[in-house]
Amino acid sequence: MSRLFGSVRARATLGATLVVAVALVAAGTAVLLSLRSNLIGEAGTRAERSARAVASELAARTPYGRLSGLDGDDGPVQVVDGNGVLVAASEDLERITGTATTEVNPRRPQPQPMGQEDDDAADSDDAAGRDGDPDGDPDGDPDDGGDSGASLEPGEIARRTTFGTGSATIDGDTEDYRFAAVEVETPDRGRLTVHAGAPLAAEHGAVRTALTVMLVGLPLLLGVVAGVTWLVTGRALRPVEGIRREMAAITASEDLGRRVPQPDTHDEIARLARTTNETLAALETSVERQRRFVADASHELRSPIASLRTQLEVAAAHPELLDLDGAVEDTVRLQRLAADLLLLARLDAGERPVGTRVDLAALAREEAAGRAGVTVDAEPVEVAGSRGQLGRVLANLLDNAQRHARGAVTVTVRGERDRAVVGVADDGEGIPEADRERIFERFVRLDAARSRDDGGAGLGLAIARDVALRHGGTLTAGAAPTGGALFELRLPLA
Q1: Of 348, 372, 389, which residue constitutes the final position of a domain?
Q2: Last residue of a domain, one of 246, 279, 301
Q3: Deepest in the core among 59, 75, 363, 371, taking most CB within 10 A?
Q4: Per residue in 171-223, pLDDT tens?
Q5: DSSP string, 83-107
Q6: pTM for the complete prediction?
């Protein structure tokens, strides 16, 4: 189970299903509440219509026995006088709740002195207000607003209607009802209140039907959402699985020439595949470069070691034939080559230069001191970096320039905006434009005919460019004004 829900596909499906479920439950609840409210409102409207119809008949002096609303066909009706006495009720009414009285058998009101009815009605209204509802509504339902407690002219019907909910039993059938209460001032019987009810069976039935539909439809809809999300997510993640399988195969085979499949889309997965292929290409280049480096280093080390071994073996057999100067020269050459290889290894490992301030003008004069034919034209500029590594760059550039110059080498140091520029120019034959980038590759020597002793191992310019890049600068080759080669080192000013 944990493995199943550990996948992106399963988590996406579960998340989408839960979100839809919450949204559907919230929407369904709102629909049910709105439906119930609307249906109760419609029942209240019907009940008010019935109550006002009976109130109109009472205002027209219709006797209780001839009231048309008392047949019980439209719902229970009660007529209560100002003293709370039931004076008229629907036929076959057996039980009722939710109105001003639970009485079902009408009683004739006791005769009262002239003017007493109005006082009793007012007292009844005050009592209703003291029971906790300012409108006199026992159920606390909102009303139409208007004239509670206000005096009415004979034959006038109050504009205010109060509502309540209860139940009633008529001829053995018990139902829930929405009741409306309307007051009327009759010319002959004083203040009367008409309570009329409208059945809520339709409301209950509609709500139950809607609830049943939701309970049945909700799981089905959630199943559809889960299935569609599962399929869509699986289709979207299929390229990712292809990338994963290909990467696993590349790891197992160690074949960096292979590439992951790239979808013909423009989405994040296509960009992931493209970036993965670019990473594989860079890794392949790095590995191939490392292999060439190891092969070339082995080849370069083999010659001085073999020469030194030969000289030592000859010296062991014939001490008088020992070429001591040649042995020392081979040893020095071997030492320099080992130092160059060690520095390249450190640079490839990402070694960062220390952030000390270096005066390039002073460094250039220091490296040029003692070299024949080298002139320095420098202005003071400072950069941040490793003094030893930058000195190595200048030494390598000067060695290369002296090796190819006819007689003069010029070193210039100047500031240019936010950069320090060091130029090393010679008056030799120069570098062909097609080879001006290739000379910075490791173990590259343009003059294949020259001796290995004169040409070096082909690491000096490669080391110089790597050091320049580590210091945030550049090293380029071009043509000097004198016709020879010009190397320009550009570094950020401190």
Answers
A1: 348
A2: 246
A3: 75
A4: 888 999 999 999 999 988 889 999 999 999 888 888 899 999 999 999 999 99
A5: TS-EEEE-TTEEEE-SSS----S--
A6: 0.50
